[in-house]
Structures are given as C-alpha cells and as structure tokens.
Predict the structure.
Amino acid sequence: MLALAQWLAATPVSQGVQRALWLIPLLQAIHILAIAMVLSSVAMVDLRILGIAGSQTMTETARRFVPWLWAGLIVLAATGIVLIVGEPKRALPNPAFQLKMLLLALAIAMTIAFEASLRRNRTSWDSGSHRGTVTVVLAVSTFLLWCAIAVAGRWIAYQQDVG
C-alpha cells in the first residue's frame, strides 16, 4: 500500500491538490458535513425501528431519510477520493484508514440488506411486527457501526506518518 501511496503522491494531480492550500481544508469541511448527513439519516431510521421516533410508517421514514444517507455517501466518496489523492501517504498505508474502509463496506452492505428487507416485507415493517430483539440489536449495531466509521476516520490524523 505504501508503494501505491508513493506513486500517487508523485502524480501531477496529487501535487496539484497539495499545492492548493485551501482545497484540503475545504474538502475536510464538506466531508464533515456529509458525515453529519449520514449519521443523522441513520439515526432517524434507527430511532423509527426502535419505536422511539416517528408517527410515519417504516416505509415512509426510509423513503424520507435513506436518500439523504446515499447522497451523503456520494459526497463522502467524492471528497474522500480527492483527500486521498492529495495526501495518499497519510491515508492509504494508515491502519485507521484501512479499518474505516472495512467498516464502511460492512455498513453499506447492512444498509443494502435493510432496504432489500423493507422492500420484501413492507407490511411487516410498517405494522411494527418486525421489531424483535434481533431487529433492535441490528438497529443499535448499525448506528454504532456508522459512529465507529467516523471515529476511525478521525483517528487517521493521530496515526504515525508512515511515508
């Protein structure tokens, strides 16, 4: 991974991002706002699953908040790619970054599984009969997983520079 990071750091695109002193802070600010979009969307859906929030059905809640989650993920991917290109030696070989990517893949898979379950079992979700112990544990786990992704992302800055 270090060899890839070194190669990427030497590319004109990476050097251009590094030279634009305002770009990295701007992208980090946008990245943080997108994290807030994702976490708040996940929180709203999970609170509805737990029966704590919402007078809407689960289908209505998902229709309202899941698009914000996906939009936030798109913004995170776009800003994250440019941040990686601008500082590849800081990110790619970093264990915290690698953990973040692993957790992110798991969280995306869980979100896709939730959406598929909602499509297949809409009546069950909307009536609340889907709210068993397993569903509650999954809702809490999902939120904690997304929080762990944010913490791992923040932790990247505190890992020793390997490049």
